[in-house]
């Protein structure tokens, strides 16, 4: 489903060159739930952004469903992201001026679908994460756990094959963090492939496989 071959990422300024990722080789199979762990600054989020086609590697190959994406145009990459990948961020990235329902609907605005079908899909996604009673609320009226559930609903509203979650429980207490993990485990049981960056070893152990990074390099 996601294959990374010999991935290298270098950030360069006029005065310094930083090697963020070095010779990363990963194959994520369809239906897997994989965790990525490592100390702060080791390249976890950079790796997730490259998997999600939000960032380009300096060197190496990316394959999605065995198709090379290096030659895709920006428009083709955006379409692939929208149709194939759902993103969940630690800081939620909700728009405070929009209702919960409107926030969840956002990914569908880039598809050629009717307003009614977008609304129906957003309602269905919110019901799936247990927030059907909060559709008309605004993000600043929600708890941290509720905001993250809205973010998950937004990630799944387009029925993506892949979910990339960057520290989805990082801003939550342990009880709410476990609730969020259980939602992700259920989505995975239903067939969604999930890659999750986490600092929580106990949560990582509940996933199928753990990839460790240290200073931008895989630890085997």
TrEMBL record:
Keyword Iron-sulfur among UniProt keywords: no
SMART domains: AAA
UniProt cross-references to PROSITE patterns, sorted A to Z: ABC_TRANSPORTER_1 (PS00211), ABC_TRANSPORTER_2 (PS50893)
Alphabetized UniProt keyword annotations: ATP-binding, Nucleotide-binding, Translocase, Transport
ABC transporter domain span: 2-219
GO terms for MF: ATP binding
Superkingdom classification of source: Bacteria
Xref: PANTHER family: CELL DIVISION ATP-BINDING PROTEIN FTSE, LIPOPROTEIN-RELEASING SYSTEM ATP-BINDING PROTEIN LOLD
The protein's name: ABC transporter ATP-binding protein
Record lineage: Bacteria, Pseudomonadati, Bacteroidota, Cytophagia, Cytophagales
